[in-house]
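Handout, page 2. Input:
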Amino acid sequence: MKVYTRTGDSGETSIIGGRVPKDDLRIEAYGTIDELNSFFGQAVFLAQEMKWEELAGQLVEIQHELFDCGSDLAYARPKEESYKVSAALVERLEKWMDDFEEENPPLERFILPGGSQLASALHICRTVCRRAERLTVSLARTTEINSEVTRYLNRLSDYLFVTARTSNVRSGVPDVEYVRSGKVFR
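Output:
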């Protein structure tokens, strides 16, 4: 099987049910989700290195769901019965997040992204996830999409923030507070 098709040489690409320019907002949105998924691969490796199998397993599961997000955004004419991302996935992220948050010290100020290698990788995932969310919000202004994808990405970025903090706790690395931050969390 050849990987190249030459069908994109003119600056267009296929989506489910049609073709669009490669710089179409839909392609930007699910392309950024693909970029996020690639960063997840690094985070999975680092979680496995830490022997944190629970997180590694969750991250791999999320990688599959990120493909589902991209698939849901790839329809030229969306069909709700074809959607893969649902409210149940958002609720599950919230449950996982609540479980990890129990390990974290109280948060009063903004923190700088970083700390352990895994926390740093998770913070990179978080910022790319926020960009994917912004692009998905923009896409939703111009076309019909599965709104659960936007909710999922929003909650996923929160999950990544919490797991980055938990990674620092488990690694014995304190979060670094932003020095000019007042107490913003209560």
